[in-house]
Design a protein that fits this description.
The protein is α/β, with parallel strands linked by helices. It contains six helices and nine strands; from the N terminus they run H-H-E-H-E-H-E-E-H-E-E-E-H-E-E. A seven-stranded mixed sheet has the order 3-2-1-4-5-9-8, with helices on both faces. Strands 6-7 form a two-stranded antiparallel ribbon. Helix 2 packs parallel to helix 3. The structure holds S-adenosylmethionine (SAM). It holds the Pfam family Methyltransf_25.
Length: 219
């Protein structure tokens, strides 16, 4: 896996490009992932993997419009959602879910909980694969630091398929990049950051080519 083997733009410029790209997509109603049945399925698999214990504290990284957060809360959990884009759906969600939902406008890499709390589990449904390669270390280290030992971490990432089996970066809109993994590639990547492998679920992507690979790991 060669996450560096790409002529990537400088980190601060890429951060701005990522922000611009997501703001544009949400404000133009072009965030088709918000309605993607594959992404919704990934969240349900994560929910099932949480087990029967109620009232778990979940960190939803790249919470977007809050589809998954709402489902997790309905199942009896509490959610903190982070996103680089303050979504127009957030005011209504805050009103609806009250103290069970906290929504914060921050990149995962920049965020520290004020009270130093740790979460029982983390869901990253479609966020990690867009991060600048120079930030993978910081991103995953932050993620791990927010989860209790043994806690569940689910990352849903782009996966290659037979129409284009080559792993690597693919350019999306507004200079946003997406990394497409092989099944072995996502496993090797997460294990190389010290996470304990649990399971991989391959999920059909409703919009666009390729697949989703939902990696379930433990901290
Ligand atoms: C493909 S969308 C998925 C949104 C949501 N998880 C879903 O399933 O509908 C990725 C989200 O991650 C957010 N994002 C990207 N980089 C981020 C970062 N470093 N920290 C937090 N959120 C980020 C984007 O603004 C966007 O809302």
């Amino acid at each position: 896996m060669s996450k560096q083997a790409v002529d990537f733009m400088e980190l601060s410029a890429y951060r701005k490009a990522l922000d611009t790209s997501f703001v544009h997509r949400y404000s133009h109603g072009e965030d088709e992932w918000s309605w993607d049945i594959g992404m919704a399925r990934a969240a349900r698999i994560f929910l099932a993997a949480l087990g029967d214990r109620p009232d778990q504290r979940i960190l939803d990284v790249g919470v977007g419009r809050g589809r998954d957060a709402s489902e997790l809360i309905q199942a009896g959990h509490r959610v903190t959602g982070l996103d680089i884009v303050e979504n127009s759906s957030w005011p209504l969600l805050r009103k609806r879910w009250g103290e069970r939902l906290e929504l914060l406008n921050s990149a995962l890499q920049d965020w520290q909980p004020v009270d130093g709390r740790q979460f029982d589990a983390v869901l990253d449904n479609g966020c990690f694969h867009h991060q600048h390669p120079d930030e993978w270390d910081a991103y995953l280290a932050h993620m791990r630091s927010h989860v209790r030992q043994g806690g569940l971490i689910a990352l849903n990432v782009f996966g290659v398929d037979s129409s284009n089996p080559v792993p690597g970066w693919r350019e999306m809109d507004n200079q946003r990049q997406g990394y497409f993994f092989t099944e072995q590639g996502i496993r090797d990547t997460l294990e190389s950051y010290g996470l304990t492998w649990q399971e991989l679920v391959v999920i059909e992507r409703q919009h666009g080519d390729a697949m989703y690979l939902l990696a379930l790991v433990r901290n």
